[in-house]
Amino acid sequence: MEPRTDADGVAAEVNPSAGEVPRSDAPGDREPLAPELGAPEPGAPPSTPTHPGAPRASRSASLVSAGILLSRIAGLARERALGHYFGASVYADAWRAALRLPNVIQNLLGEGTLSASFIPVYARMIEEDRQEAARRFAGAVFGLLLVTAGALVLLGMALAPLLVGLLFPRFDADQHARTTALVRILFPMTGILVLSAWSLGILNTHRRFFLPYVAPVAWNAAILAALVGGGWYLGWEGDALLRLTAGGALLGGFLQFAIQLPGALRLVGGLRVTVLPWVANRIEGVREAVRAFLPVLAGRGVVNVGGLLDYALAGLLATGALAVLGYAQVLYMLPISLFGMAVAASELPELARSQVAARRKEAEEVAEKEAGKEAGKLAGKQAGKQAGQGTPGDLDLAPARVDGRAADLSPAAQAALAGSVRQGMLRVAYFLVPSVAVYLFLGDVVVAALYQTGAFGPLEVRLTWAILAAYALGMGASATSRLLSSAFYALGNTATPARVAVLRVTLALAVGAALMFPLDRFEVGGGLRYGAVGLALGSALGAWVELGLLRRRLARDIGPHGSGVGPLLRLVTGAGAAVAVGWGLRLALAGVVPGLHPIPVAAVTLGAAGAAYLGVTSLLGVRSPLLEALGRRGGSA
Q1: pLDDT at 305 over 80
Q2: pTM
Q3: At residue 36, what are phi and psi to the nearest 5 degrees?
């Protein structure tokens, strides 16, 4: 099943305020004459104007990407230290299993679920300049999260031995006790990170994007400090170092929340926390948010059950499967977080605001029409009295009602939303296409540069690459689905992504379970086997099915929103050239400097591949989103 953002990347989704994102209204900014990514293909549906928020959304996505990049760099350093000290041992397996269990709370109540229900309501109140209502609503949501997360944390800590035994029945007594101890330390951490997700929702709505996505650096830094301090300075190893690492994670959760909270409180204007559910339910917006929250919660519940079963299945495989699956997932989530989640996170507030503006405009037009007709009726009555005739104003001239549903959006509003989604899909594709190519054909270079040290050797590199390549087959679909889900959330439709998630999870688990045992017969060496590759292949298939279903439904709501074949072919051509250059340089280095350390090999190989991609796509008329983010004249890839 597809890995969701868990504590390995928890903190990958959540963060100090960089100030409001400036708008790009320069009069010289116009469409270039050269062909560009996103230009309509022959026979494609008529193009729609780029939505007014596109420059802002692009810059916002860049701020999100910058924050995620810094947190991911810290996360990669953390993973390198974990690989160095624990490799693919029983200690690494226990760490992965223990992270997955309490992270259910984070995934159920955290950033993705909360954003889908909280941001649209809060953004509408802010857009309507109702600050006091927004403040009361934010306080009620915070209180509900505090009570719910706290209760789940206490319950999880009490039931930890039972949960570990149920999900990982093949663990022996020592491994069971080791994992249970870690779970009890990590459950409070995920409860704190749920509150951190509330801060993210506040900051994102006010267009403060950088802080909530860079705050996880603190979480990663605390774990890294525990690993290096305990393993290198104190010389600890095994269980002692593992428990110290979990303690660092708990401290990091506090730090991540503390970094965001002051900025969120300033934007809200002070917080009046309402912890009694029956009181909170009477506050404006809460019932609406809960109604939107429940379908997402149901979908996330299925996803979390699937994620737990995914790891439970891996626990049935050879020792090291859990650990190596986790190492591969960190790299798999990197491009999705940097580009897919960045675009989706920055687009959601803008999409929500645009729907408020569109519906307000339609309501104003209706009101103007009604006012005009009333004036006509009055004039007709006066003229009728004077001429002794009937009243023409008595005809049925009532305008159509606007109830705010997605189906009732005007064609112009639907076109604007479709344009927004199209631009977001193109930005995601620009970065995800080469990422997929690199993971498929040069993934061992990436894995070796990051992980090959200490207890993580060439055999671990080979197995991690195989799992990463399988995940990469669905990476583009997974990233794009996050953007499409944001479009549904902005329309107030949280049920469709939840229903599709159920199907994706079910399919991924079924396919993964069918493939993992046959593949586990093949040995990499040193006791490591390929079984976990089957779980990754199931995830990839599920991701593509999810994308297809989401696109089909969204097309019914807002019309065509795809990028066309031509732009994608240009990106694939650039990615092919990049891989060819990377392979050539890799072979040349092996012949000239055999046995060169993996880090310089990766720096030269991947650096040249990246330059080749930029060069070829530029020659093909594709404008980099980085130029757009810098406010330069260019396309909107």
Answers
A1: no
A2: 0.71
A3: -145, 165
